[in-house]
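Tokens for IclR family transcriptional regulator. Go.
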Amino acid sequence: MAKSVNAPTGTQAIERALSVLGVLADDGELSAGELAQRTGLTAGTASRIAKALVAEGMLLRDPETECYHLGPRAVVLGRSAERVLGIDKAMQPLQGLAESSHESVNLAARDGAESVVLARVQSTLPLRFVQHVGARFPLYSTASGKAMLAFGDATESYLAELPTRLPPVGPGTLATRAQLERQLEQIRERGYSIDIEENVEGVRCVGAPVVDGDGIARAAVVVQAPSVRMHKDRIDELGPAVATTAREVSRVIPDASVLRSQG
């Protein structure tokens, strides 16, 4: 039988399926129409891909809401990836930092121009910033991103592509590329980065790079806290502790390059 000229190639079909999985990883639960809107696919294509993924156990469909969300096979794949990448081993030092600081702790990696949360230990305090694994933010507005830029190997090309005036993300976002460059120098000197409501209003962060054997940052450890608890003295206190935890993570993930997708 002749193949339809409109039929997707194998690569295209895979890319479409991955786009559906990606938006559901970010958004949690979406209808077929919302999937189409978020992925740029037609409604019919999005629906067919979602049904195929349900058949494979990668997605589940809620019979009441008719919305799709990740299924049990996606969980199995995710757990397997954690073991292969060493993220499961990194959880112990991350949990130790969360317990000593009483704040939320992230392990993030660079994906192009963004910082992506790979693992998270949530604070048990009532007042906390809730975030999910898979959340992504610009490198220049996050403690994790700036830690990776300060000790990264693709920083010059990244900075060259930034506009002179940086698009604001949060109320404290650095205004210019020059300010970012000066801050990266400060991070190299002290060994940790800070985010003073640069990404999210009311949230301050302290980050440190997870480096490989060549001293190149492929990931970062970050402590997140409400601004009311993250005053300057506490930032100065947490900085060395975050840097110590980042070094511990680098020892259990010796080839941290596997954590970075691109960039």
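Confidence is low (pLDDT under 50) at residues 1-5.
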